[in-house]
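Box 3.1 — From sequence to structure: Threonylcarbamoyl-AMP synthase
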Amino acid sequence: MAAEFLQIHPENPEKRKVEQVVNMLRDGAVIIYPTDTIYGLGCDLFNKNAVDKVCKIKGLKPKSFNLSFICNDISQVSEYTKQINTPTFKLLKKALPGPFTFILESNRNVPKILGTNKKTVGIRIPDNNITHMIVDLLGNPIVTTSIKDDDEILEYTTDPEIIYEEYKHLVDVVIDGGMGNNVPSTIVDCSGSQIEIIRQGLGDIEAYA
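Predicted structure (token representation):
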């Protein structure tokens, strides 16, 4: 059965439609959704079968999957990470919500859904109303990973209708929240003694340092 193609207003998301997505996530759905950078592929953090499905779509072995998830706010971030030092906390406070993935030390609250203990976790709080409402109504983070395009010129697909045609038999829902960006988030590693930029993307972390 083909996935549902669900149009949701990017600025004023219709709560009824978002609740529909959230209910499907709770039932193990895999969704494609907009962020403030590129479109993401994800599921409920606590549904192992759904996470396995995400890994299969990406062609990854679960144990090699670098776990990243989207949180509602910094308070929720702290539920899944070890104590954040003051400089890092100030950086997160300034930069989020925004186009960044922060790598932080994980704590025991991160579920062992991949069959292995992950010492670090990637955290995102996108500046996107649809994603924010999804995580808020779900009550816990969603696993997130990027959608890669096989085209070497166009690395990230930005048109949700094209995304739907490519993934409609692989996922359960594709959310149309308008055209996406084709630049991914900036990955900032805060798990060590020094803050390190792993990948330069849309966000400029130096502006918040």
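Summary of the box: Residues 186 and 204 are 7 Å apart (CA to CA).
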